[in-house]
Write a structure and sequence with these properties.
heterodimer, A: about 15 residues, mainly beta, B: about 260 residues, nine-stranded antiparallel sheet, five-stranded antiparallel sheet, 19 strands, about 15% helix
């Protein structure tokens, strides 16, 4: 099964 | 004071088409350089980044950088007052908590003015690095739209695979499985009809298909779109508006648990 990580786990907070 | 006039006011309508099913409220960042927006969808899986350069507007004035929060559902209602060929002027006084939109017909025989309340929105701003992608595919946006629509009636997820031969979109569901491959093709006279594959490394990623269908609602903005992919990174789906700006969608890939 594949999970769906949040987009914020790829981009740091500005 | 902020004031900006677009000769082709329906550009804003087209941008809203692509935004409103993804984001219901967002901050527009006004600066002397232009208007930008960054927002995540409610499930925080996708991110949209809009940039409209100041020189895309006929008259552009922004005395000080400011963020204005808008309900995009309400904005879409307001935009219904604009004819497709109308010019559109946006005005926001720094001391007021509203925005005025003026729609004028090209013949200057119809004038509509609508005032809309602004809202305070807490939003998280993410830093998007300038990635070098493993693969960048440019293709006609209508073709991309058709592919993701067709596949979404078969499955819920799409596996996108780029090799030197082209880009393949695959899905499977109760109906069966489907693979659609678009090969590099630059034989057509119009560059907008070309499909080009810029490949550093072959890459395969899986995404929730319904987001691609939502991104494709920006199809009317540009004849060409691009898909940029890197291993284990969010895909970037871009619709460039000539030298006026762009709308970029980022979607996190599905990864093995």
């Amino acid at each position: 099964p594949k999970g769906q990580p949040p987009i914020s786990s790829f981009f740091a907070r500005a | 004071m902020f004031e900006a006039k677009l000769i082709q006011g329906n550009l804003i309508k087209k941008i809203m088409e692509g935004l409103k099913d993804l984001v219901t409220e967002a901050n527009f960042d006004l600066s002397p350089g232009g208007v930008s927006l960054q927002a995540m969808d409610s499930s925080h899986v996708a991110l949209v980044a809009l940039m409209l350069r100041g020189d895309a507007f006929e008259n552009y004035r922004c005395d000080r950088p400011r963020s204005i929060g808008m309900n995009l559902v309400n904005l879409s209602k307001v935009l219904k007052c604009a004819g497709n060929d109308d010019t559109m002027t946006l005005k926001a006084d720094d001391t007021q908590n509203n925005i005025t939109l003026v729609f004028e017909s090209q013949a200057e025989d119809k004038y509509a003015e609508v005032q809309m309340e602004l809202m305070d929105i807490d939003s998280e701003h993410l830093g998007i690095p300038d990635n070098t992608y493993d693969a960048i595919v440019k293709m006609p946006s209508a073709q991309f739209s058709q592919i993701v629509k067709d596949l979404s009636s078969i499955g819920d997820t799409v596996t996108v695979s780029v090799t030197k031969d082209g880009i393949t979109f695959s899905t499977s569901g109760d109906v069966g499985t489907a693979h659609i491959t678009c090969k590099q093709n630059t034989s057509m006279e119009k560059e907008a009809d070309h499909t080009t594959v810029n490949l550093e490394h072959p890459v395969t990623l899986t995404f929730a298909l319904r987001y691609f269908v939502t991104f494709a609602k920006s199809t009317s903005l540009s004849h060409q779109m691009s898909i940029s992919l890197s291993k284990e990174l969010p895909v970037m789906v871009e619709y460039a508006m000539g030298d006026m700006g762009h709308i970029r969608f980022y979607l996190a890939p599905k990864i093995d648990d």
